[in-house]
Amino acid sequence: MSAASPLVVGREGAVGIIELARPDKFNCLSLAVHAAIEAALDDFEKPGSGVRAVLIRAQGKHFCTGADLDEVKGLRSDPAKIDHFIRYGHAVLQRLEASPLPVVAACQGLALAGGSELMMACDVIFASTDFRIGDQHAQYGLVPGWGGSQRLPRIVGLRRGLDLFFSARWIDAPTALQWGLVNYVVEPDKLGEAALAYCTQLTTRSRGGLAIMKRLARQGMDQPLGGGLKLEQDVMATELMNDDVSEGLAAFAARRPPVFK
């Protein structure tokens, strides 16, 4: 993409890379950033693309410090434009959650407000030891606009979520790990390497199998246990017959690694 693009999009083997590229603005999120993320997902998800996992990372000192407030100020005079700004951001983050590809984030420095919302829409999170996360909306008379009010309490629990909203405080990487906001904490100089190695490992898995597990887990979270179990039963009955299962069983019997199409 061009030097003026808010993202650098590329590939490392079968891993699609989405790199936030506005370090001078702490990788804040704008309409152009969200559009570029959506376009990258469209390309990665195309049949025959060869992409089997997605890594979201960021240039500079911080992962993302929230929405582009300069853009927000310019939109506030037009209710239709500010409504589009909010709804489009929601739609793109929901695309990340609904993507059939595993989406991994590598987060350094700060993930604040909209940056934390972007992070929480990903599936697996790597954080550096200098990582801190928080929601400062209340400090400035704002409220979460891209799903934070819903995703954060679902991840950390209602009381912890409300505490972070009310206090606007930041928590560090060990606390984020303990609360389930991140999966792995590594040294800053190992962050990119560790996240990419994890994604590369995912590329050896059945793409269809990972997509189904992601869909079942995410859809099941919004249902009572019985409904989620019914989803699993219905999927399993048909998926046992596919080619990836045949290859997996053959590889197990031959004591070799499977090679999925």
Give the biggest beta sheet.
6 strands, mixed
End-to-end gap? 29 Å
Tell how many strands the DSSP assignment holds.
Answer: 9
**The top level CATH class name of the largest domain:** Alpha Beta
CATH superfamily of the largest domain: 2-enoyl-CoA Hydratase, Chain A, domain 1
Number of helices: 11
- Give the radius of gyration: 19 Å
Low-confidence stretches are none
Number of spatially distinct domains = 2
Shape type:
globular
Helical fraction: 40-55%
Give the averaged pLDDT, no decimals.
94
Question: What class would the helix/strand composition place it in?
Answer: alpha/beta
Description:
The chain is α/β, with parallel strands linked by helices. The protein has two domains: 7-202, 2-enoyl-CoA Hydratase, Chain A, domain 1; 207-254. Helices cover 49% and strands 15% of the residues. It has helices at 31-45, 69-75, 79-98, 114-120, 148-156, 158-167, 173-178, 191-202, 207-221, 225-239, 243-254; strands at 7-12, 15-20, 53-58, 103-107, 110-112, 124-128, 132-134, 170-172, 184-186. Strands 1-2-3-4-6-9 form a six-stranded mixed beta sheet, with helices on both faces. A three-stranded mixed beta sheet has the order 5-7-8. Helix 1 (31-45) links the parallel strand 2 (15-20) and strand 3. The longest helix is centred in the middle third of the chain and has 20 residues, at 79-98. The protein is globular, with a radius of gyration of 19 Å.
